[in-house]
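Lab intake sheet, docking and co-folding queue.

SAMPLE TYPE: protein with bound small molecule
LIGAND NAME: glutathione
LIGAND FORMAT: SMILES
REQUESTED OUTPUT: full 3D complex as structure tokens
PRIORITY: normal
SUBMITTED BY: R.K., bench team

The fields below were copied directly from the construct record.
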Amino acid sequence: MSDPDITLYGLRLSGHSHRAELFLSLLGLPYRFVQALPPTPELRRLNPLGQVPVLTDGEVVVPDSNAILVYLAARYAAGGGWLPADPVGAAAVQRWLSIASGEVRTGPALARLMIVFGAKADRETVHATAKRVLTFMDRHLTDRAFLAADHPTLADIACYSYVAHAPEGGVSLAPYPAIRAWIGRIEALPGFVAMPASPIPEE
Ligand SMILES: N[C@@H](CCC(=O)N[C@@H](CS)C(=O)NCC(=O)O)C(=O)O
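RESULT FIELD (auto-filled):
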């Protein structure tokens, strides 16, 4: 296998970018980071949607945070348990990738986007979505160490950034002890790298 020649086009305050950077760091892969928002012409060439993150690895171009996780796991960590090959394990991980792009994106991530970046959305709806998904996740984690297996998988990496930084959007994690314990387990993984913190708004 050729040496990795990896560039991550992202934004350091983006949780989508962070999940890609976190996984690169957990795998110990060398990479360059290029800040690409507001969308640069290079970013638009690599991803016509104009969104970060995009990962390039030599000639390979992979837009989308979850696609990047899948690419890195399959290319550089096959058999490492991040992306199980068995049908039940694979489906369990995919379920959480969907939740990361669905309820986590439209709940805690959007609540943070409203505060940190001034995005406009209906606060009540966004916070109701956050409560629903965090309540579900907390119950799910009550008797589990990780979301989709008895070890960390892409499910945990995809969900971590926006859940851990939910308080920056005014979504407290105080009611969710199992989630807080899970966050501690992710942050204890060798190679963990944090997303820069933004101020937590007063109640
Ligand atoms: N489905 C995409 C969503 C990425 C996304 O929403 N990126 C935001 C930053 S957090 C972005 O690039 N926004 C700029 C834009 O949409 O113009 C992924 O998972 O990578």
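REVIEWER NOTE: Helices lie at 15-27, 41-46, 65-76, 87-101, 103-116, 123-141, 154-164, 177-187.
SIGN-OFF: pending second check by T.M.
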